[in-house]
Amino acid sequence: xxxxxxxxxxxxxxxxxxxxxxxxxxxxxxxxxxxxxxxxxxxxxxxxxxxxxxxxxxxxxxxxxxxxxxxxxxxxxxxxxxxxxxxxxxxxxxxxxxxxxxxxxxxxxxxxxxxxxxxxxxxxxxxxxxxxxxxxxxxxxxxxxxxxxxxxxxxxxxxxxxxxxxxxxxxxxxxxxxxxxxxxxxxxxxxxxxxxxxxxxxxxxxxxxxxxxxxxxxxxxxxxxxxxxxxxxxxxxxxxxxxxxxxxxxxxxxxxxxxxxxxxxxxxxxxxxxxxxxxxxxxxxxxxxxxxxxxxxxxxxxxxxxxxxxxxxxxxxxxxxxxxxxxxxxxxxxxxxxxxxxxxxxxxxxxxxxxxxxxxxxxxxxxxxxxxxxxxxxxxxxxxxxxxxxxxxxxxxxxxxxxxxxxxxxxxxxxxxxxxxxxxxxxxxxxxxxxxxxxxxxxxxxxxxxxxxxxxxxxxxxxxxxxxxxxxxxxxxxxxxxxxxxxxxxxxxxxxxxxxxxxxxxxxxxxxxxxxxxxxxxxxxxxxxxxxxxxxxxxxxxxxxxxxxxxxxxxxxxxxxxxxxxxxxxxxxxxxxxxxxxxxxxxxxxxxxxxxxxxxxxxxxxxxxxxxxxxxxxxxxxxxxxxxxxx
Length: 631
Fold this sequence. Notes:
Elements: H1 14-23, H2 32-41, E1 43-47, E2 52-54, E3 62-76, E4 82-88, E5 93-94, H3 96-101, E6 108-121, H4 122-131, H5 133-148, E7 162-168, H6 171-175, H7 178-190, E8 196-203, E9 210-214, E10 217-219, H8 227-230, E11 233-237, H9 250-258, E12 261-267, H10 276-283, E13 292-299, E14 320-325, H11 329-339, E15 343-348, H12 357-367, E16 374-378, H13 380-389, H14 394-405, H15 422-432, E17 444-450, E18 455-459, H16 464-471, E19 481-483, E20 486-490, H17 499-506, E21 517-522, H18 541-549, H19 559-572, H20 575-581, E22 584-586, H21 601-616, H22 621-624
Parallel strand pairs: 7-11, 7-12, 8-11, 12-13, 13-14, 15-16, 15-21, 16-17, 21-22
Antiparallel strand pairs: 1-6, 2-6, 3-4, 3-5, 3-6, 8-9, 9-10, 17-18, 17-20, 19-20
Helix pairs in contact: 1-2, 4-5, 7-11, 12-21, 13-16, 15-16
């Protein structure tokens, strides 16, 4: 029998609809009398998660306001595949434009979870318009304007609780308490951003009757109606789904239906193929396809590296896979930040020895308790980011990088490059072994320029050493790294500080735009003057040799200077775009250090630390991590 608490069938009160309209940034400005008439003219409806409310091509004869729950806008492409668009949240409305212009519906609209709606029909709208033409025309034109504004300019509406369903995929995760432990830890982490509630159903030991527990305390079923008023985040803990073929229990179906996002929980070493019950739950009525879906792979606390996540993608539509270690609250905190769109991405640019400033920035972030959830970079930035993603300490990274840079390289027959690059490849393989990027606890990427396609390649799969090598192979100086026949070189040719790549990774497949997390970018690429002495008629080997042998000789840039400048000139045009896409853009003052000043790494790192601390003191840390005081 379907789990249906009493409040699901009860209509929302007039006061609830009025409160929603009053809180609306668009409709809240109407006079109180008109606002009351608007609320009274609406029909309140309760719809079940997964229900299709409107279909593309139908007549636009209603405006729908969301009181609680959420709606998903979708379309079908030419092949019939469903395309997901934005979610309509509590306090928002949809349908104004079509109703006013009398156009057909442009998309499908479905309930992403059980929702209460207030529906204004065309007839009711026209009656209200006859009585209050000026006021209502103004407010509905404003509503249409808000709908058509660029997404990043739209103010964040007042929202009700974000809801998550945690579904263990194996019976033992329930039996050993792992599902409950993760749900409790997740609520603890979410409480840093707002009020959080953990809801689960248990069996009374004496009677065997089902009982609801909210944060460990008994909750009457009728109190479910008010949960979204009390909490900013609600975690519904469902029970395991195994492959026994049994019909999923009512509580699990109910919990999944209430969720905006689904969190699948599996043991890291369990079979990766979806079970029959999982398939039935997530594909039964199509409702799961409307939700953001995540997979948590639970590892033992001291496992050296996570399992390869790729096999888990087969048969599932996942936004992201999260490797978590038992009893590691830091891993769960990262999960919470991703779920709520408040993850922090750090982008480290290239710049030779000046890149040691990145170590100072990392130290400043650690001391300021600003955790890095994703890290990526180019060239020297990729080398430091990769070591940090492996869990190396800042002191270890400093010493390893200095040893790596001191290795030197042999000149070769210049048919492909000036140097062979074999020593660099050998030392990177020693540093990282054969570890795959996908098997890092901290997500990482390296940027490289794809000379074959004229684009920036973002390397986030495959051997870690190979990605770092490609990002540290300046064209002409080192041989390109081959990838399926394509030639990869240092990414600075097109994008030395790859903020765009980070912005894409912070976004979700539904909304690749600002607002899904924060980015800190660090640019250490100092643009030096590349000019020869005005008295020189021709630049040749002799002029360069004289400059090396006699410090006072006329300026004559050598091949390394020319290749470095040529390799960075394209990224200079991207600098303004990178600044615009980053939330914070740091430029440590490293111009006084030469590109090859690796012996001064500690000094450069200290400068980067002081520069970062000066800026961090001016940031709003609570806004950066979406932290909110408890109410």
